[in-house]
Amino acid sequence: MSTVGFETGYETGPARPEEAQAVADAVTALLRELRGDASHTIPGLGAAVADAIAGRDGAGVLVARDGQGRVAGVLGYTTQTALRLAAPYRHVQELWVEPGLRSKGVAALLLAELDALCAADGVRRVEVCLPAEQFPSYPRTLAFYERSGFRVIGPRVIKDLS
Ligand SMILES: CC(C)(COP(=O)(O)OP(=O)(O)OC[C@H]1O[C@@H](n2cnc3c(N)ncnc32)[C@H](O)[C@@H]1OP(=O)(O)O)[C@@H](O)C(=O)NCCC(=O)NCCS
User: Fold this and answer.
1) CATH class of 3-147
2) 106 Cβ closer than 6 Å to some ligand 1 atom
3) Does any ligand 1 atom lie closer than 6 A to the CB of residue 77?
């Protein structure tokens, strides 16, 4: 599946294997931005990106490309089944758009592409975790997701195990 956003001039579709480095760079940039740490690196990212692009275990990567075919935005997702739904749902794990290309509808196009993919696969729910409230762009990010049809269901708690 591949969609062209005529208003935005960007095209979206599944990431190709040759776009793995661009996807890894985008995920690294996302984490650096969220953590406010310009030197953050993710060990093992290359293999994880390759697995997701290959669609392993329900994971996947959508990209938005500009007119020259350059990757302008990336959406990483996973698919899992919850007992509470008795059905599969998708989780947007990463969503990032090149800073100079924001507010042009690129992320909205990626979410629309994911919606189409879910419809084709019979997946009827999409979830996403927001960045921490201390993140400077948190209010704009929340506004973006609400405008895209998401509703807030409560904070997330996590625990890292060593
Ligand atoms: C959130 C994000 C993916 C939106 O991408 P985008 O292509 O600019 O989104 P769209 O053009 O479809 O919609 C723009 C809206 O996104 C929201 N937004 C959130 N953060 C923003 C930012 N730093 N810059 C611009 N828009 C932002 C705003 O609501 C904006 O609407 P506005 O232009 O009327 O203020 C992008 O800003 C981004 O990569 N931010 C940093 C990472 C992040 O927060 N990712 C999501 C959580 S994992």
Assistant:
1) alpha beta
2) yes
3) no
